[in-house]
């Protein structure tokens, strides 16, 4: 009986530690995404490019990024609200090398265009930080 109780206790503790670790990662990823989105929300597109992952910067030249972001975001008006809708982790993404990625989707409302879905993909950098490597709006 004592061994069974001990095994259950270990299982509970292990599950709690794994859950806490996942929650901590999600907090770090969401914080990184929201910080980066702050540049985009303030129309600081050059800064958003400079503060993105080397993967994004290698894929999209700075001038192309700024032009594309200006087109995507300028007509939408001021942001009203942003709520996280989904989060998923993966080791591989089309167009990127294998690694640690988290894809966050946000429901976002804007003064000029109503509700949209923003997808922010982050890659884990060698120093353990999470950096945006892709951004899309639907």
- As a percent range, the share of helical residues equals 40-55%
Tally of extended strands? 4
Q: What is the terminal separation in angstroms?
A: 56 Å
Number of helices: 4
- Average pLDDT score: 85
CATH 4th-level superfamily: NTF2-like, domain 1
- Strand content is 25-35%
* Major sheet: 4 strands, antiparallel
CATH topology heading = Nuclear Transport Factor 2, Chain: A
Q: Could you give the order of the helices and strands?
A: HHHHEEEE
Structural class, by secondary structure, is alpha+beta
Radius of gyration: 19 Å
Features:
138 residues; alpha+beta; Nuclear Transport Factor 2, Chain: A; 4-stranded antiparallel β-sheet; 4 helices; DUF4019; signal
Any overview of this molecule?
This protein is of the alpha+beta class and 138 residues long. The protein has a single domain, classed as Nuclear Transport Factor 2, Chain: A. Helix content is 46%, strand content 30%. A 4-stranded antiparallel beta sheet has the order 1-2-3-4. Strand 2 (101-110) and strand 3 (114-124) form a beta hairpin. The longest helix has 40 residues, at 2-41. It is globular.
Brief synopsis:
The protein has 138 residues and is an alpha+beta fold. Helix content is 46%, strand content 30%.
């Amino acid at each position: 009986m004592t061994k069974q109780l001990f095994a259950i206790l270990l299982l509970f503790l292990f599950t709690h530690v794994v859950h806490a670790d996942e929650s901590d990662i999600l907090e770090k990823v969401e914080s990184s995404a929201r910080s980066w989105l702050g540049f985009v929300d303030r129309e600081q597109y050059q800064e958003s490019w400079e503060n993105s992952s080397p993967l994004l910067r290698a894929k999209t030249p700075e001038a192309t990024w700024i032009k594309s972001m200006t087109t995507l975001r300028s007509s939408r008006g001021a942001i009203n609200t942003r709520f996280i809708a989904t989060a998923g982790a993966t080791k591989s993404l089309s167009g990127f090398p294998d690694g640690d990625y988290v894809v966050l989707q946000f429901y976002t409302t804007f003064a000029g265009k109503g509700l949209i879905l923003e997808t922010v993909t982050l890659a884990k950098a060698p120093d353990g930080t999470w950096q945006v490597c892709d951004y899309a709006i639907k």
